[in-house]
Specification:
- The structure holds two protein chains of two kinds.
- By secondary structure, chain A is α/β, with parallel strands linked by helices.
- Chain A has eleven helices and eleven strands.
- Chain A has a seven-stranded mixed sheet with strand order 6-7-8-3-9-10-11, sandwiched between helices. Chain A has a four-stranded antiparallel sheet with strand order 2-1-4-5.
- Chain B is mainly α.
- Chain B is 71% helix and 0% strand.
- In chain B, helix 4 runs antiparallel to helix 9.
- The longest helix of chain B is centred in the N-terminal third of the chain and has 37 residues.
- At the A-B interface, helix 3, strand 6, helix 4 and helix 6 of A face helix 8 and helix 9 of B.
Chain lengths: 349, 281
Amino acid sequence: MSESILLDVRNLSVEFAMSRSRMGLGPRRSLSAVSDVSLCVAAGETIGLVGESGSGKSTFGRAILRLGELTKGQVFLDGQDMAQARGEDLARLRRETAMIFQDPFGSLNPRLTVRQAIGEVLHVHGKADADGARARITELLELVGLDAALMDRRPGDLSGGQCQRIGIARALAIEPRLIVADECVAALDVSIQGQIINLLMELGQRMHLGMIFIAHDLAMVRRLCDRIAVMYLGRIVEEGPTEEVFGDPRHPYTRSLIEAVPEIDPARGLPAAPLQGEPPSPVDLPKGCSFHPRCPLARSECSAILPPLVGARAHRAACILAPGGQLNKAGDNLPKTIPVTPTERTVKC
Amino acid sequence: MSGAATIRTRRICWPGKVTPLVLGAGILIAWLLVAIFAPLLAPYDPIYQDAAVRLQPPTWAHPLGTDNFGRDILSRVIWAARIDLQIAVFGVVFPFVIGTVAGSISGFFGGWVDTVFMRLIDVVLAFPFLVLMLAIITIIGPGLGSFYIAMALVGWVSYARLIRAQFLVLKNSDFAMAAVSLGYSNTRVMFRHIMPNAILSSVVFSMSDAVLVLLNGAAISYLGLGVQPPVAEWGVMIAEGQGFITTAWWITTFPGIAIVTLAMGFSLLADGLGEAFGVRE
């Protein structure tokens, strides 16, 4: 990370207060959607944030842009903490960051034409005067590969891919330095997905954007991202340069995610030991490592200690068996996933 | 909403291009023209009493007959269109505006503002609609002005609740969040992004509401608290004619038909607008 750090998130937590059980007489509970997450984004760098549904990826993405609640932690943008920013500081955050949403139709106001939607950004941020607006809108549309003839259409007249491109054009209109793309291709056809990914890659490089790409499609992330962070139940369990993480995953969760990526190769069978069950409830997180109830390598220590992210600076994992972890000082990677006997497992967990 | 209700299809085959929207707008425009050109269209003075032609059935001279004071029913129905259209419009506009403002503030800001408005709405809703209106009109004194005031004080709650519910949904929509993320001000997000989408269902509802207001106005006038005799108003006319229903059916029937057609016009327009906006009632 020789590049200048654009965004530096430190120990961010998001908790949602829940209504009390037992008709309001039960204990005060809260759902911790994101706990203690730290992440750096350099200018021009694309970071993939992956994990199952409910792992807190989107909540995290929204919290750093101050679009959602944020309980604890700091979000430094160019060294200025934005976590509690208000007024002019918050306005600066809004000017320098943009978000691309999952639902291409839902993220556009159905009553506004393309021209109005993009023109509004230019107008509010004083990016272009009335005369320059049209030229700039045309330019932005061309940038995302759309014909300027679509300018007077409304989202209802456009396809999902076109809408997503307009969402991207609108995000680019404020000339952001950081973009958070929240599952921005999940709702699109596979062929369109590829186009949008290529577009984002190209734009990211050309404009030297920092990008956080939230997704659950690992193949997509591998193609697009420089670094990858894997989230499980609100925590980052592994983080590192994309190829290192894919080539040599150090957390059992990452390993099972990668094994589960379907490939068009009949020779390669289905994963031998797919992940069982569903993530535990974030209201009542397991003690210790929150992955241990599903982990094929779980030991008795796992339910006692919450493993910190360990390893060399670039590639780290939160597992006691990972290189540098409490039970692995030798530095070899995780043991192979050997199906342990059922009795052993029950004792361990 | 249950699955069966969502897939309910209610398609009537309208001949040619005559959609509910066109038909409803047509009926309303026709009544509007009648109201505007009442002095030209009405053959007699609506309040002129001619004792010589009391309680006459429809004849060539009096196409819709005359009432017990010898007043021409046709002329009275035509002149009454002015009053009744006014009732339908003003009886809807004031509650609409008040309810929209209250509901959007309540839904957008939430918190204690929302609580205050919601409790206020509960208070209004705790009383039966007509009883509360009658109470208010009795306090202020009978007349059309009092009717509008009472309508505004009681009717805004439906609009407020409708708009608030829309705001609650749309406030958390992606496009509202996108607007916030693009650095737009609260006012801009509220008025340019949420409001135009939230207001559609209220516009549709206001058309159906106009029907109810019209009937309410007729009911209030019937009770003697709205339009005062001898001014021609459909509700008043029905009230005055009811004693003669067995002997002179035309006194009550024609104003009744007028109310029904105007109400149908609003109702069809509501249907048509709902379809055009993609709003399901």
